[in-house]
């Protein structure tokens, strides 16, 4: 059954590359896009990815509480955080990247979002950072993943029904993971800037923890791909090395603290990087170190298919996304649990998904600009948090500056 679930190759970075200003193959002129509506939907998407006990303010009502006992197997509370994509595992490496970039979006473009959407964006960040504070509460240990990825990927079930092992995978001095620890430090540091004006105590807590986690990442160097092996790779392997995350983390700590030692760290270590600015994503931070900005319109519908690749935006958008919660009937519609293979008929169905995961941006079209709208083709039809995160800031910018 693994063949019909998420595969072992890394997620496509099509939209992330596009957001960094790569030349688009095709554009269609004359279409007016509602960037404010797209912005609202791109932030709402994160509510559909929440894990844990949902707050009363939850707007995506078809989602319910899930994985509320995460961490109990090792006697800690690891509830909360986000599912990365259409599966039900909490992969901290891409989650931390998502949080860093979402925070960056707010830092750069929060003033263009409008008060309501800015508040929602900050809620989305805090949902992740509250979880990261739990995951880094024990000095010298970082919990970096919750959920057996093999068990999870063998099932097609709602997060509310999960009965697969919620195993916890951790790094420490004997099993280092500099890339995931440094990215977590970057996320905490970037978020501390977001909350500095509105919640100084929380901001300080985030920054203090970021400093602690970065020190651990730097002092105990090594890749989590080596330390945790098959439990993290082939799912989110570290292909580019951990040096870029260390420099990336130091840059965010400098931005958050203004301490010269972090600037010196960047200057003294940036030579370690191969200056490959061809991509920017959860694994490779090179381009993020040198900066961005591009045109969001192809994604929103100015393309040969005249369809939006953001679910719920426009009149034509993906209907059969590769996402468990979206493709299965909600708990309200089907109160009885759906077991591991109970969702298979829904996965194989040609019907549209019953729950609209508003704001989700899918993997995208193939090299020929064709899109099959097929759950089986997860490379094209699966949304991820780290595709949406860079889009939030870009949409905020274009909301405030709609003309080219």
Automatic annotation (TrEMBL):
Catalytic residues of the enzyme: 322, 373, 382
Keywords, in A-Z order: Carbohydrate metabolism, Cellulose degradation, Glycosidase, Hydrolase, Polysaccharide degradation, Signal
Highest taxon above the source species: Eukaryota
InterPro entries xref list: 6-hairpin_glycosidase_sf, 6hp_glycosidase-like_sf, Glyco_hydro_9, Glyco_hydro_9_Asp/Glu_AS, Glyco_hydro_9_His_AS
Annotated GO biological process: cellulose catabolic process
One Gene Ontology term of the molecular function aspect: cellulase activity
Pfam families: Glyco_hydro_9
Signal keyword on record: yes
Transferase in keyword set: no
Gene3D superfamilies to which the protein is assigned, alphabetical: 1.50.10.10
Glycoside hydrolase family domain span: 35-295
SUPFAM superfamilies: Six-hairpin glycosidases
Signal peptide: 1-30
Substrates-to-products reaction catalysed: Endohydrolysis of (1->4)-beta-D-glucosidic linkages in cellulose, lichenin and cereal beta-D-glucans
EC nos: 3.2.1.4
Family: Belongs to the glycosyl hydrolase 9 (cellulase E) family.
Protein name: Endoglucanase
